[in-house]
Amino acid sequence: MPSSTPQPEKLLYYIAANKVLICKECYYAIQPSAISGHLKVLHHIYRSDRQEFMKYAQSLDLANPKDVVLPHEAPIPFLPTEDGLSCGVTGCDHLCASVKRMKSHWVTVHRGIAGEPHVPQWRPVKLQTFFRGNQLRYFVVSESSTLASQPQMEPEVHSKCLSLETGPPLADDSNWSADELGLIKHFISYTYCDMGHDSESRQMWQTAASPLAHNHNFLKHGLLAVSALHRASLDPSEKKRYQMIAAWHQNKALPEFRSEIAHPTEHNCNALVAFSQLLIIHCFASEEHDENLLLVRGPHESGLPEWLQLIRGSCTIFKDVLQFLTMGPLKNLNEEMELRLLADAPEDPEYNRRLAHLAEMPTFKRLPDPKNGPEGNLFPLLCAFHELLRAFAKASAAQSRSHFTMSIGVYIWPAQISAEYLNLLKQRDPVALVLLAHYCILLKPLESSWYMNGFTKRLLSRIVKQLDPTWHRWLEWPLEEIGLRECSMECSYDMV
Q1: Which domain holds residue 418?
Q2: If 0-12 CB within 10 Å is exposed, 13-18 middle and 19+ buried, where does residue 427 land?
């Protein structure tokens, strides 16, 4: 196959659950009987090169359009998402993309009940369709769902995507390159779905972030970096390339962000708080391939967990401009960070028992070392421990209200710990590492998000390797909760 002709998997995407084959450049599914003609007419792939494509297609279980089972979950990558309407009559499944068509449906189907006050005529929904033309059948996709459950997907956004209404139009795209437009369209079509704790927060990321980016270059590059990381998580074959793109944009963003963050004002505070959230996501999503972000360096090298430092710092810089944040376009994001509004839930006896066990660690039983000052290392460790107790209570409260989000998960403890504790963590203090291991338990519910997938297991595995085996007994609960059975067995062996 000539180098100019893409491999089948680069152009076509198969969804086994629905038995459809989607063209990644045309953004719709191809009927089984029309694959050869589609490749010839629309992509100019000639017979000799089409053979590999046809062999690939014939190896798949493809359904005819009328037999395709329609999904009702997360938006399907490569398919445009449209604003549409669902008929409000109970038992009627009619979907359409315009008020005009819905009114026509009511005139012809529901004429007898039209105008009755107790019968809603329609409701707004998000729609997608696998096929076009006379095979068009809309299905509803949930805004609250995400792509996290489909890590194998590969949304190869082509320049044609720019003409599709997969997200809100950009206010001004004259300063964006074609590649940048592809990434930002991916962000406002897919990446935003997994950001924010409710539909209003997600809509804020979809509609308010990119206009802000036109006036703040660091935010523009931050959005593009996270979008590229999302693409990397969906496409194993292009993972390294998108990771490099993400790193390039992040390197472009950080110098200006550091300069602006030193002087927050009413004009830049919304962009700064948006970027600080993107920065946290970037840290979580990129730590697997960035050895500077976690405890992954050699035993004789220093390496502060950057994500902890970033979270802690981002909470303290906006006090002078809080009034502008509460009235600005990102007010929903600011409300997510208002932990004082989250009352403690009733104490969990099992949590209390497990956490109380940590008070028996040897360091907490020893007198402070005078060489390290009047309180030595004990005070920052005790403070971090007590903040961890409060964090578990806050997390329980949030989970009881179905309100446990990334913002809450990362702010309830990292934002409260001291610089002295972070320094001890940098020095591989065993108690500091044990406390961090228990914090992994609080992060576990967030792993359904693409940027958190596998994070706690990787972090906890590295903590185990950093600790002397005599400390492994204090890791039983985190290892059990996170599901690291092999490490748990090793720890049990170490205690024998």
Answers
A1: 338-494
A2: exposed
E strand or H helix at 84:
strand 82-87
Both 306 and 164 in one domain: the answer is: yes
User: Looking up tokens 């990119």, which residue turns up?
Assistant: 210
Task: Give the ranges where 116-238 is alpha helix by DSSP (H).
Answer: 178-189, 199-207, 209-213, 217-234
| Same domain (yes/no): 361, 455 | yes
Whether 284 and 201 map to the same domain: the answer is yes
Number of structural domains found in the chain: 4
Residue 77 half-sphere exposure toward CB, CA atoms < 13 A: 27
How would you class 131 by CB atoms within 10 Å of its CB: exposed for 0-12, middle for 13-18, buried for 19 or more?
middle
pLDDT value of position 397: 77
Examine residue 332 and state whether it is found in any structural domain, yes or no.
no
pLDDT of residue 439: 94
SS3 77: coil
| pLDDT of 153 | 36
Residues 287 and 403 in one domain: no
Same domain, 18 and 107: no
- 319 within domain boundaries: no
Using an 8 Å Cβ cutoff, are 223 and 192 in contact?
Answer: no
CB 138 within 8 A of CB 96: yes
Could you tell me which residues are beta bridge partners of residue 122? Answer: 87
Domain boundary among the residues 250, 280, 313 is at: 313
Strands (E), 103-169: 122-129, 138-141
Looking at the fold, whether 128 and 194 belong to one and the same domain comes out as no
Distance from C-alpha of 183 to C-alpha of 177, rounded to nearest angstrom: 10
Q: Tens digits of per-residue pLDDT, 61-72?
A: 999 999 998 887
209 vs 369: CA distance, rounded Å: 50
Residues in the chain, pLDDT under 70: 1-6, 114-119, 143-175, 197, 287-307, 310, 313-323, 326-327, 332-348, 365-376, 401-402, 485-496
